[in-house]
Specification:
This protein is 22% helix and 33% strand. With 705 residues, the chain is an alpha+beta fold. The longest helix is centred in the middle third of the chain and has 19 residues, at 457-475. Bound molecules: alpha-D-galactopyranose.
Length: 705
C-alpha cells in the first residue's frame, strides 16, 4: 500500500515501511512496519538521498553520471512530480518481478532537459520492494550515460557488516562478512555474467536489522557501499566498468530492476526473499509446482556413451523411481570431447540413434526426457563457425581467449539471436524434451560486435540473451528450463525470470555443498536450487561421503542423481529407490516449505517446515567429528511452539528408521538436543573424511504442550 501525505510517501509491506520525502529526494525511514498514522516532519532533512551526482552529493560513488555533448558532466536534478499507479514500469527487454502492487514514480529534472525517474513497487503480499531507474533525454543533443544505478539507499550511520556470497567454479556463494567503518566496499563483476565469483545478492547488517539487496540481472553488476557524511550509501546496479551508453534525443535508458528487503534477522530475511522469488520472479507452469526427480548421465559417462548405455541408465533410473532422465553433453555433431561441435545442434545419430527415437524410447519407459544444450557458445571446430565465423564473439585481427576451447556467440547481433532461437526450438521439437539444461561454460573476453559501440556491448549482449530466453520460454511453456553456467556461475534473479531452477554447482561433494547451498539459499528458495547425489569418491574433491549424507544434503534443494546407476551394487540401488520414494513423499515440504538454516558449534543443516506447520524435515550435519569430543547440540527452528511433535530419526537410505520421541515445539526450538554417538557413527561409516549427517522427521500430534 502507498499513502501520500504532503511530500511524504509511505509504502507499507506486510512487515516493513519505507517513507520517502519526494521533494527533498530523501529516505525518511526504512525498517519495521510502522503502525497507525505518523507525523514525519521531525524525521526529515536526514540527508539520506535517493540519488547522487558528482559535485553535489559528496563521496565518490554516485548513482547517476553522464557526459553532456557540450563537454560538461554535472547534473542538477530537482523535484518535478510524483505519481502512484497500479502499473509497474515496463523495462524493455529486461526481466523484472511481476504481480499485483502499487508503484510510486518520482521524477526529477535537470535544466539540460534530462529527467531521472525512480520507481518503487510494493506488492500486497511481499516484504521485498522492487526499485528501478530511467534516465530520459528530452534535449536536442545526445548524452553519454556513464552510470545509472538501479537503487540508491542511504542507511543511517557506519559500521555495517556487509555479507557477500563469493567463490569460484566448484565453490560458489560462500558467505563472507566485511565490516565497513570508513571508505568504500565494492562487490562487483566485469566479465559479462553474474559469475561464480561474486553473486549480486548482498546484505548490509546494521544495528536495527538486515537489508538484503539483489539485482534482476545476469550480466556485469556492482554493489557499492560508501560511508559518506554519517550515512552508508548503498548503490545497486549494472557495473559501470566499460559502460558508456549514448542516449539519443527523445530516448531513455532503463536500468534493470533492483530489489531490497528489510528484516530483523537472517531467518526472516531468508524467508522473505524466498517468498518473493517464488511468487514474483518465477513464473509460468513451474511456479510453485513440484519439480521432478531427475537422473543426469554427465558424471556417469561424460562423453563416453552410446544409445545402449543411455537406455540402460534410464531403465535403472526408472527402477529407482526417477521421473525425468536428462541426456547431458555429447549427443550432437561429432562431440566426443569438449574441443568441438558447439553450435552444431544436429544429432549424432550413430551415437544416440537420434534424439527423436531416443526421446521416444525413454518416454516409453515412463520417464520424461530432458536434454543439455549450451546455446550461447560456439567451437571454431564446428560447421556453424565454418559457415558463419562472424557469429562468434571475436575481435578482428586478434587472437581470442579460448576457454574450454570455445568462443561465445555474439548475442548482441539479432541474426545470432534468431539462430539460437531456431536451434533450441528445433532440438526441443525434435526430441519432445520437456526439460532443457541451458549451460554457459565460460566468461566473456573478446567482446566485439560489428556496429555495437564498445561501452554498450555487455548490456546489449544481455538484452539479446533475454530476448532469446523470453521467446523460448513463451514458445515452450511446458518445458522446465534449468539454468547452468559451469555449475552455478549464473545464479541470479534475471535467469530465474525465465528458468525456474538453476544448477547450484558442479561440486556435488556433500561437505562442499553444505556451504554452497547455505550461501545460495540465503537469497534463493530451495525450489530453485539444483542439488544432486553423485558417485564417490567425489569427482571434484576426491572425498568420500556416505550415500545417506549425500542424499540428506541434496534434499536441501531439487533432488537429482548425477551418476551411472548401472555401476552401483544392488544394495545401493535399493537405497536410492527408498531415498527417491521418501523425497517424493515429503517433496512439497522440502521444495516449498519454509526453509530455515540450522547452525551451532560444529553443526549445520536446515529444516523445511510445511506451510501448515504440521510436519517438517530437518538435516543436521556434523562436519568434523573428533575422538573424545563432547556431544554437539542442535536447536530446531520454525516449529509451532505450542504443539507436540513426534520426532523420528529418519534414515530413508537404510532399511529402517531410528528412534522416535515426543517433544513440544518450544523445547525443540529453545532446548539443545544432544547429538549422542556421532563419533561411533563416523567410525561405522568407513568413509574417510566424510561428514556425519542425520535426518529428523517431525509430525505434529494431537496433544498440546
Ligand atoms: C558444465 C556443467 C556440467 C556439465 C558439463 C557438460 O560444466 O556445469 O554439469 O553439463 O558442462 O559439458
Amino acid at each position: 500500500m502507498i499513502r501520500k501525505r504532503g511530500q511524504f510517501f509511505r509504502m507499507d509491506t506486510p512487515n516493513t515501511t519505507l517513507v520517502i520525502d519526494a521533494e527533498r529526494a530523501e529516505t525518511v525511514y526504512y525498517g519495521e512496519r510502522l503502525s497507525g498514522a505518523c507525523e514525519f516532519s521531525a524525521y526529515t532533512g536526514s540527508g539520506r538521498r535517493l540519488f547522487s551526482v558528482f559535485g553535489r552529493s559528496g563521496g565518490s560513488e554516485y548513482s547517476v553520471a553522464f557526459f553532456h555533448s557540450d563537454g560538461g558532466f554535472t547534473a542538477d536534478f530537482s523535484f518535478a512530480r510524483a505519481k502512484v499507479s497500479d502499473a509497474k514500469p515496463v523495462l524493455p527487454d529486461l526481466p523484472s518481478s511481476y504481480g499485483e502492487g502499487k508503484t510510486l514514480e518520482l521524477r526529477y529534472t535537470d535544466p539540460a532537459k534530462l529527467a531521472l525517474h525512480l520507481f518503487f513497487t510494493v506488492f500486497e503480499d511481499s516484504d521485498v520492494i522492487a526499485v528501478s531507474a530511467q534516465l530520459h533525454n528530452a534535449g536536442k543533443k545526445p548524452v553519454r550515460l556513464q552510470r545509472l544505478m538501479s537503487l540508491q539507499l542511504e542507511l543511517p550511520g557506519a559500521g555495517y557488516r556487509i555479507h557477500t556470497f563469493d567463490g569460484a567454479w566448484g565453490r560458489e556463494r560462500h558467505e563472507t562478512v566485511h565490516t565497513l567503518q570508513n571508505g568504500t566496499f565494492v562487490n562487483q563483476v566485469s566479465e559479462g555474467y553474474s559469475s561464480h565469483m561474486h553473486n549480486p545478492f548482498v546484505v548490509a547488517e546494521g544495528p536495527c536489522g538486515l537489508f538484503g539487496f539483489n539485482l534482476v540481472y545476469s550480466g556485469n553488476h556492482k554493489e557499492a557501499f560508501e560511508c559518506v557524511g554519517g550515512v552508508t550509501r548503498a548503490l545497486i546496479g549494472i557495473n559501470d566498468a566499460f559502460f558508456d551508453w549514448e542516449i539519443a534525443p527523445g530516448e531513455s535508458f532503463f536500468a534493470p530492476e533492483a530489489v531490497v528487503c528489510f528484516a530483523p534477522d537472517e531467518d526472516a530475511l531468508r524467508l522473505r526473499m524466498h517468498a518473493f522469488v517464488s511468487e514474483h520472479i518465477v513464473r509460468g507452469r513451474w511456479k510453485k509446482r513440484e519439480r521432478p526427480v531427475l537422473f543426469n548421465n554427465w558424471e556417469g559417462t561424460y562423453f563416453d556413451f552410446d544409445e545402449q548405455k543411455i537406455l540402460a541408465i534410464a531403465a535403472a533410473a526408472k527402477e529407482a523411481g526417477a521421473e525425468l532422465f536428462v541426456l547431458d553433453d555429447g549427443w550432437f555433431g561429432k562431440r566426443d570431447s569438449d574441443t568441438c561441435s558447439l553450435g552444431d545442434w544436429q544429432d549424432n545419430a550413430a551415437k544416440t540413434g537420434g534424439l527423436a527415437q531416443l526421446g521416444e524410447k525413454v518416454r516409453a519407459m515412463g520417464l520424461e526426457f530432458g536434454i543439455w544444450m549450451e546455446p550461447e557458445m560456439i567451437n571454431e571446430d564446428s560447421d556453424l563457425y565454418r559457415a558463419h565465423p562472424g557469429y562468434a564473439m571475436k575481435v578482428p585481427g586478434r587472437t581470442p581467449v579460448r576457454q574450454r576451447h570455445q568462443l561465445m556467440l555474439n548475442l548482441a547481433d539479432e541474426r545470432v539471436q534468431n539462430f539460437v532461437v531456431r536451434a533450441v526450438s528445433d532440438v526441443l521439437t525434435r526430441s519432445g524434451a520437456t526439460y532443457l539444461k541451458w549451460d554457459f561454460n565460460r566468461h566473456m573476453s573478446d567482446c566485439y560486435g560489428k556496429g555495437v559501440p564498445a561501452g554498450e556491448y555487455f548490456h546489449r549482449y544481455m538484452l539479446g540473451f533475454y530476448r532469446v530466453a523470453a521467446k523460448l520460454a513463451k514458445r515452450f511453456p511446458g518445458v522446465l528450463f534449468e539454468g547452468c553456467a559451469g555449475g552455478g556461475g549464473r545464479f541470479d534473479l534475471g535467469i530465474l525470470c525465465y528458468f525456474p531452477q538453476i544448477w547450484a554447482s558442479d561440486d556435488t561433494d556433500a561437505r562442499m555443498r553444505t556451504d554452497i547451498q547455505r550461501g545460495t539459499s540465503y537469497a534463493y528458495p530451495q525450489s530453485s536450487i539444483g542439488a544432486h547425489v553423485s558417485a564417490c569418491p567425489n569427482h571434484q574433491t576426491g572425498d568420500d561421503n556416505t550415500l545417506a549424507a549425500r542424499f540428506n544434503v541434496a534434499c536441501g534443494g531439487v533432488l537429482g542423481y548425477e551418476l551411472d546407476p548401472t555401476k552401483l551394487s544392488e544394495e545401493e540401488r535399493a537405497a536410492i529407490a527408498r531415498q527417491v520414494a521418501f523425497y517424493k513423499e515429503h517433496r512439497k515440504t522440502l521444495q516449498f516449505g519454509s526453509q530455515y538454516r540450522l547452525c551451532g558449534e560444529g553443526v549445520e543443516g536446515y529444516i523445511a517446515v510445511s506451510k501448515d506447520e504440521a510436519s517438517a524435515v530437518a538435516v543436521v550435519n556434523a562436519l568434523n567429528v573428533l575422538p573424545g569430543q563432547p556431544d554437539l547440540f542442535v536447536r530446531f527452528k520454525g516449529l509451532n511452539p505450542s504443539c507436540v511433535y513426534e520426532v523420528t530419526r529418519a534414515d530413508p537410505s537404510a532399511a529402517a528408521d531410528g528412534e522416535t520421541f515426543l517433544a513440544g515445539g518450544d523445547l525443540l526450538m529453545h532446548g539443545c538436543l544432544p547429538l549422542h554417538g556421532l563419533w561411533e557413527e563416523k567410525l561405522a561409516q568407513h568413509c574417510s573424511g566424510g561428514i556425519v549427517s542425520r535426518m529428523y522427521l517431525f509430525k505434529k500430534t494431537k496433544q498440546r504442550s
